[in-house]
Amino acid sequence: MIKLLLIEDEAPVREMLKFALADEDYAILEAADASEGFSILRDQRPDLILLDWMLPGMSGVDFARRLRRDAANRGIPIILLTARAEEDDKVQGLGNADDYVTKPFSTRELKARIEAVLRRAVPESEGMLQLGSLLLDPVAHAVSVDGSPVAMGPTEFRLLHFFMSHPERVYSREQLLDNVWGQNVYVEERTVDVHIRRLRKALSPHGYDHNVQTVRAVGYRFSARTET
Question: What is the pTM of this model?
Answer without folding.
Answer: 0.58
